[in-house]
Amino acid sequence: MKTFMRAVLAAAIVAAAGSVGPAAAAARLDYRCASSTRDIDDTSYDGPWPDNWKITVKTCAARSGGTVYAYAEARWNGPGFYPADDTSIFDGAKLRVQIKASRPGTDPVLAERDFAGIEDRLEDSSSGADYRGSYRTATISHRAGAGALADTVLFLDWQGDGRGYQRHDVTASPTV
After folding, report:
1. Nearest to 171 by CA among 94, 101, 50, 74
2. pLDDT tens across 44-97, in order?
3. Please, what's the b/e burial string for 64-83 (b: 16 or more CB within 10 A of its CB; e: otherwise)?
4. Which residues neighbour 17 within 8 Å (Cβ) at sequence distance 6 or greater?
5. How far apart are alpha carbons 163 and 90 in whole angstroms?
6. Whole-prediction pTM value?
7. Tens digit of pLDDT for each residue in 129-154?
8. Is the pLDDT of residue 9 over 70?
């Protein structure tokens, strides 16, 4: 009976080791990343205090066989004049992560997904109204031929400025 139980246990361990899900597989990949930093003006504020947000977005891509994986991570430092945890800074904010085929001229979009969770993180501060934080998107994936890359666009809709979403392009990842 002990031999049978050892065989069953060994088979279960082998099966578990071979059944890594897509998220775990994506986490083990060798990502190639690029980042850029932008000073972005709060267009809804025209008072005397400095109102620019310093936002750095890192875009990463990796390949496993014919599948490309991509994610983005944003880090920011906002101005200090907002009250703590001010949920009225934005009407909306999102990161759009794209997987593109790398071609001469315009790179065609193969897959994209918007991540609106960044808005809540941008409007969250310390108790002292320190608006520093970060947000990482989930990983998206798509089958792509040779030469693909990840790209990210930051969209911000400042509350009360009447302009809707404003697009902020950032640096794309290297080709994978």
Report:
1. 74
2. 888 788 889 999 999 999 999 999 999 999 999 999 889 999 999 999 999 999
3. eeebbbbbbbbbbbbbeebe
4. none
5. 12
6. 0.82
7. 999 999 999 999 999 999 999 999 99
8. no
**What strand order describes the sheet that includes 166-169?**
109-115, 90-101, 148-158, 166-169
User: How many angstroms separate the CA atoms of 20 and 36, rounded?
Assistant: 33
Two tokens at 16? 């578990």
Can you read off the two tokens belonging to residue 115? Answer: 């991540």
Q: How far apart are CA 65 and CA 121, in angstroms?
A: 34
Q: Are 122 and 92 in contact (CB under 8 A)?
A: no
Q: Which of 58, 37, 41 is nearest to 49 (CA)?
A: 41
Instruction: Find, among 121, 153, 148, the residue nearest to 38 by Cα.
Output: 153
Spell out the alpha helix ranges (H) of 19-76: 22-27
